[in-house]
Write a structure and sequence with these properties.
Layout lengths: L4 E6 L1 H14 L2 E6 L14 H7 L4 E2 L7 H10 L3 E5 L7 H4 L6 E5 L7 E2 L2 H7 L4 E8 L9 E8 L6 H25 L14 E2 L15 H11 L6 E5 L2 E10 L10 E3 L4 E3 L4 E10 L13
């Protein structure tokens, strides 16, 4: 009996680890649809194209699969099952309707919370103590389909987004390993999401790292750890130069007007409810005049 034909859409290291699982199992992966690496992006993660090419799996990188040409190409592949893992574009309903076993997505949150883009960064920014991975059926609305399975993990209030990502990534492989045979046999159990508990967040841009000093110290600290390297980073400005803030620590017993520089050595800046010691910074450009006790923006 022929094995079901799996068409894999994916990117990121989560896509790599899930595709690697299927290839280790000897599943019939007929192709990978993925993205070209963006030269302006810090590619600090493995991508599924590496695993696919090592196993002779055809790799495709269309700008959009929702064109007549690509809908025809995908239909000609005759997939029995579509799996999407960190694929960054929406897949149209015409394609989702093709496989007889359905189309399913692995999303980086405990749905219905944090639908949309960059869920782990958003969860860290909001100080979540627990994050996870969810396998769900794909429908027209992003991340809104019935849940098949999910797995969560605790994260530290000091974890950066990358550290949180490293902790949660194995959850994707765990969930897929638990459910792949059910997916291939069309025996999965699905649970509708609670729409009243759903939250949605869009993609993040470097400008979103701008620090609002009127926020609380904890809110600013959570922003810093959510976007610190390998992400674009949090920043503020002084004298026409940009100050990247890669790490900071709350300073007990210090306060002032939000954005006020309370000391230079160590560099301490007042927040909406206290102060932060900026422990790892990087100037981009030369501030004029040189930074002095005053206010940054």
């Amino acid at each position: 009996m022929n094995k079901p034909r799996i068409l894999f859409f994916g990117y990121s290291e989560v896509g790599f680890t899930c595709l690697d699982l299927l290839l280790e199992r000897g599943d019939n992966v007929i192709g990978l649809i993925t993205h070209e690496d963006n030269p302006d992006e810090n590619i600090w993660f493995k991508t599924p194209a590496v695993a696919a090419r090592e196993h002779g799996i055809p790799v495709f990188t269309p700008d959009s699969v929702n064109t007549p040409e690509w809908r025809e190409k995908i239909a000609a592949m005759q997939p029995d099952l579509i799996l999407s893992v960190y694929y960054r574009h929406m897949i149209g309903q015409t394609i989702l309707d093709l496989p007889q076993l359905g189309a399913f997505n692995m999303h980086g949150s405990l749905l219905p919370k944090y639908r949309g883009r960059a869920p782990i960064n958003w969860a860290v920014l909001h100080g979540e103590p627990r994050i996870g991975m969810t396998l769900h059926r794909m429908v027209k609305r992003a991340d809104a389909g019935d849940v098949v399975d999910q797995e969560g993990v605790e994260i530290s209030p000091q974890d950066t987004a990358e550290q949180a990502f490293r902790k949660v990534m194995p959850c994707a492989r765990t969930v897929l390993a638990r459910q792949i045979d059910h997916l291939l046999a069309a025996t999965v159990t699905e649970t509708p999401q609670d729409e009243s508990a759903a939250t949605y967040f869009g993609g993040r841009k470097p400008e979103d790292g701008r620090i609002d000093w009127s926020l609380t110290s904890m809110e600013i600290f959570n922003l810093i750890r959510a976007v610190t390297d390998p992400y674009p980073g949090a920043f503020t400005e002084n004298g026409g130069a940009k100050l990247m803030v890669w790490w900071a620590e709350p300073v007990p017993g210090r306060s002032g007007e939000p954005g006020e520089i309370l000391s230079l050595e160590p560099l301490v800046v007042a927040t909406g409810d206290g102060a932060l010691h900026l422990t790892r910074v990087e100037w981009r450009g030369v501030p004029s005049p040189s930074p002095a006790v005053g206010t940054i923006y």
